[in-house]
Design goal:
Vanillyl-alcohol Oxidase, Chain A, domain 3; alpha+beta; binds flavin-adenine dinucleotide; Uridine Diphospho-n-acetylenolpyruvylglucosamine Reductase, domain 3; five-stranded antiparallel sheet; 26% helix
Length: 393
């Protein structure tokens, strides 16, 4: 007989049977769930929108859904800061922030994630000068395993802050985030097709020419679909045009619809290695996976100084490989991972990879510090799972 309740991630590739799915309505209830788990010695994994391809939430303890912990609590437009609840979907941030005259510096390809879920894995968009979402976190309010609710930032509990701003859900439940924002801005989008080799040959020029540049390439195709976004003072055009032709507020243009269920591997590489790595992937896919009909995506992320960010200490190119849920993904991803490894790639924490702690410590110089601090605030492993333990060096 199976125990627990059925749980699955967005794509359905990751499934689990947690003992319980808890749906706290406010922070006080989060504290009660965590305290109750402590009394019964059960583990707790917070869930945002379950959009991770890695089994970060899946386990047999308590899944703590954060959907009800949502809303913008305050905006200080002069200080360019906003305080938001952790379970707020990124899609629900755009309008209230804009009404207060501000916006996020950047967003990823979709806006369905919860903000605390997105920052917990270093979610990013594209842009040579733009860092990931975790780097925009200025402070966090965290329910710890002890049941204490702690505010942390660069000055108060700075080590806890280092872990909490890219936490993999492993140090507590983040109920609020203080985020860096900027003045609201509009973006104009452009898409065009260009031979892949020409794009790779002039990639630095293309990336430097616009605020956000990326390209998608379908295996076997001669040309890549390039996309650029630039700031504009022009009036927004409604109804919104199709992807590739939008002119509107940043949150309306940055987010896309990605409804075809898939899993994904993504690695971050030193920026200069991007084109060579992409060419190596193209060759390998042509040779071993000629039927793949899911695109590769190429983006840029600015360096940051977070302990376990995939862009820590280096300007970064990210390359993603996708596979539909109706086809096996492991052979493809393992073959691509071999190539990513050869280019000093760091895996995205929220996507598929097959790396374990000792190897990861060689890629993320502060990973051992991250674990030391995590263990200090959660000595009994209340927020861990077997998968999380596999990431321990
Ligand atoms: C279609 C699609 C498109 C994507 N596009 C991008 C992209 O453009 N760029 C990119 O970088 N990634 C992208 N991703 C990956 C995605 O952004 C990350 O996996 C992200 O972490 C998912 O957020 P979530 O809210 O669904 O969190 P979940 O997957 O539910 O959880 C992720 C982690 O956050 C933790 N967590 C969640 N809420 C809390 C909380 N309140 N307190 C503490 N920990 C918490 C969980 O425990 C877990 O460790 C995409 C994924 C999909 C499916």
């Amino acid at each position: 007989m199976s125990h627990g309740v059925a749980w699955r991630n967005w794509s359905g590739r990751v499934t689990a049977r947690p003992a319980l799915i808890a749906r706290p309505r406010d922070e006080a209830e989060v504290v009660r769930v965590v305290a109750g788990a402590g009394e019964r010695d059960v583990t707790v994994r917070a869930q945002g929108a379950a959009h991770s391809h890695a089994p970060l939430v899946a386990h047999d303890g308590i899944v703590l859904e954060t959907d009800a912990l949502a809303g913008v609590l305050g905006v200080d437009a002069d200080a360019r800061e906003a305080i938001v609840r952790g379970g707020t979907r990124i899609a629900s941030l755009g309008a209230p922030l804009r009404e207060a005259g501000v916006a996020l510096h950047n967003q990823g390809d979709i806006d369905r994630q919860a903000i605390a879920g997105a920052v917990a894995t270093g979610t990013h968009g594209t842009g040579v000068a733009l860092r990931n979402l975790s780097a925009g976190v200025l402070g966090a309010r965290v329910v710890l395993a002890s049941g204490d609710v702690v505010l942390c930032d660069a000055h108060r509990e700075p080590e806890l802050f280092e872990v909490a701003r890219l936490s993999l859900g492993a140090v507590g439940v983040v109920t609020e985030l203080r985020l860096s924002v900027r003045d609201a801005y509009k973006l104009e989008e452009r898409m065009w097709l260009e031979p892949l080799d020409a794009v790779l040959d002039r990639i630095d020029t293309l990336c430097a020419a616009t605020r956000h540049f990326e390209f998608f390439w379908m295996p076997g195709a001669e040309r890549a679909a390039c996309k650029s976004l630039d700031e504009t003072d022009a009036e927004p055009v409604y109804p919104l045009a199709a992807e590739g032709k939008r002119l509107a507020w940043s949150d309306e243009v940055l987010a896309n619809e990605r409804n075809d269920l898939h899993s994904e591997m993504e690695y971050s590489l030193p920026a200069a290695s991007g084109p060579a790595c992409f060419r190596a992937l193209r060759e390998r896919i042509a040779r071993d996976f000629p039927d793949l009909r899911w695109p590769l995506e190429y983006r840029r992320v600015a360096a940051d100084d977070l302990w376990i960010s995939s862009a820590t200490g280096r300007d970064t190119v990210t390359i993603s490989v996708h596979q539909g849920v109706d086809a096996p993904d492991e052979p493809l991803f393992r073959a691509c991972e071999e190539i990513f490894r050869a280019y000093d790639g760091r895996p995205h924490w929220g996507k598929v990879h097959y790396r374990v702690g000792a190897e990861l410590a060689a890629l993320y110089p502060r990973l051992r510090d991250w674990w030391r601090v995590r263990d200090r605030f959660d000595p009994d492993g209340r927020f861990l799972s077997p998968y999380l333990e596999s990431l321990r060096p």
